[in-house]
Structure formats: structure tokens, C-alpha cells
Amino acid sequence: MNKRQARHFAIGATVVASAAFLGLTLDSHRQFDQLTHADKITAEVKRGKDVWHKNNCINCHTVFGEGAYYAPDLTKITKLRGATYLTAYLRDPSRFYDETRHRRLMPKQDLSERDIGDLIAFLDWVSNVDNQNWPPRPLLVSGATFPGSDAAPGQAVAPGGRPVASGYDPIALGEHVFRNAAPACVACHSIAPGVNLAGPSLAGLAARSAALLKSGAYHGKASDLAGYIRESVTAPSAHLVPGAMYSAGGASFMPPGYGKDLTPAQIEQLVAYLSSLK
């Protein structure tokens, strides 16, 4: 290739690359309203964005990967924590996390109830934006893991860490649901004794549940272990676990939509897995 040919090649490549970039940019702008659900931007969402900026939440948190990385990314927080939990948390974060035990402490912002509601509306709008699963960042602060929550997503593992060879083992399939449901159960529950996250540890769940059903303190409708676990998944407010971290105003912090979002088969697989946690 001589100099003239090289020059023509460079100019042609630049023109093609520029045209491709311009086309992709225009196509992105064409889809922005659909991808961001612009029709869902209400007055509450706009005011919630103002609350977010006024309280400098971005100094510690990120959304869409933008912000500080001192605290968890909140892009999908409402998918992992329901409005009931987030409301109680924003009222008084110290009820949920202790700096000494959990190595984190969110300052109490003294937000009004309206501010809290609008902020959650903003974060809920953020969580529904189609961001193509970017950034691929977990809820936990970078580098932090809790026992019982650090297995690879989708890994079929029986209690005790034994890999399961058969893809049809109901316990292995239930383990997969536990780690891959939306939101993932493992985002709020550990299977390690004494490690309570947003929800109580599920270590020893079978024995504790059997004792609860016999104690007279149970207020739900189940009559056996499988029924109690099934009820806890599909109707989490039927029986409330004592503790300010887990419920408020007679409603569980656990998302109520698993009964609709999971298939009957997935629920039974999850019941099989949780029943195995002796």
C-alpha cells in the first residue's frame, strides 16, 4: 500500500467509523424514552431526585455506576429491598446496621416522611431503567462477603458444600432458585448461623420452624414444615418473625411477589432446599 492508498484508507475508515458512531448515538437517543420509562417520571420521582442530591447520597452511593464507591450501588435497590424495608431503614439506619459489628454505618438523615416516600419513588424509577445489567456490581460493599452468601451464582451445591451431579436433584434446583430468583433470596438471607442480614439467618430453619409450629406462638395457617416454608415465601406477612429489623406496621419486609414471580415448581424446589437446612 503506497502513501496515497494509505491516506484514502484512513479517510474512508474515519468516515465509516464516524457514520457508525453517529448512527448508534441517534439510535440510542431514539430509545431513551422507552429504555428509561420516561412516562413514569412523576412529580414524586423528580422530587425524590432532588432529595437524593440535597442529602449528598451520591457521596457514598452510586446509581448506574456513577458516584462514590464507599457504600453499595443502589441502581437496583428496590428490586432487592421492598418499600416497607426501605422506609423503615431510612427512618433510622442504626436499627439495621451497627458500625462495630457490620463495619458500616449510614448517618441518620432525619428525612421527612414525604422525603422518604419521594426518594424511594426515585430509586424505584432508577431500578426499572433498562441499563443492560450494568454495572455488574453486588449490593454489598466491594470486597465484603457474608458467610453463606458467597457461592457462585447458579452453582448447584447441597448443604455442607457438596456439589450435586444431577441437575434434577430438587435440593440442588432449590439452591439455584435461592441464589438466582429476582430478587435473590441470598441478597437478604444468609445460611450461616448468627449471620443476620436484611432478613434472619436461615441456618437451622427446619428445626426452628418445627419448634415454632408446636409452640403456640405461630399465627399463620400452615400445619407442617413444608407448608410453613411455602407460606413464608408466598405470603411473608402471614406470620411475622419478631424483631424490628424484619417487619413494620404488621407487614414483613420480605418482597410479597414471589408467589407470582416463581413457578409452582420453583416454589416446591425452594421448599425442598430450605427444608434441608437442619
UniProtKB/TrEMBL annotation:
Pfam families: Cytochrom_C (PF00034). It comes from the Bacteria. InterPro entries: Cyt_c-like_dom, Cyt_c-like_dom_sf, Cytochrome_c550/c551-like. Keywords: Electron transport, Heme, Iron, Metal-binding, Signal, Transport. Residues 43-127, 169-278 form the Cytochrome c domain. Residues 1-19 form the signal peptide. GO terms for molecular function: electron transfer activity; heme binding; metal ion binding. The keyword Transmembrane does not apply. This is Nitric oxide reductase, NorC subunit apoprotein.
